[in-house]
Amino acid sequence: MRRRVALFSPSLQAHMDAMSEPHPSASVFTGLKRGLQHRCPNCGEGRLYRRYLKVEPVCEACGHELGLYPADDGPAYFTILLVGHVIVAPMLIFPWIWEASPWLVAPLTLIPLTTLTLVALPRVKGAVIGMLWAIKIRKAEDAPT
Ligand SMILES: [Zn+2]
Q1: Residue 5, CA distances (Å) to 11, 14, 58, 66, 118 in order
Q2: Would the pTM count as exceeding 0.85?
Q3: φ, ψ for residue 58 (rounded to 5)?
Q4: Of 50-54, 89-93, 105-109, 141-145, which range is least confident?
Q5: Ligand 1 center to 45 CA (angstroms)
Q6: How many whole angstroms from 58 Cα to the centroid of ligand 1?
């Protein structure tokens, strides 16, 4: 930390700290909404992802440090919770799942479930990052990545 401060002038360091602070009007609803839309939770303008699930380290629009939010396994957990409990469990109630040929049931269930999971995962991850932004939980800057 001391080494990093020494590389920048005090005014530049203060400017960088201000850019990385969450917006003062951070609300959980705003964070969730912007995250679900794949947008920076701080400004709602910049892209949240560089690739499918790769978070932009810094927002291109406002300079907010998006890479500091430790989503970790949270998005996978919530996606499994969503798809498993809301879709898979009720599906097992229908008798055709148990009576039809596995060669018919497997593609008719696994393909839509896989698609739903892959569509939901970045949205859920965005919502988790938006929630972390709203409640101001970030990685320690000196923690190993
Ligand atoms: Zn932004």
Answers
A1: 11, 10, 19, 21, 41
A2: no
A3: -135, 135
A4: 141-145
A5: 6
A6: 8
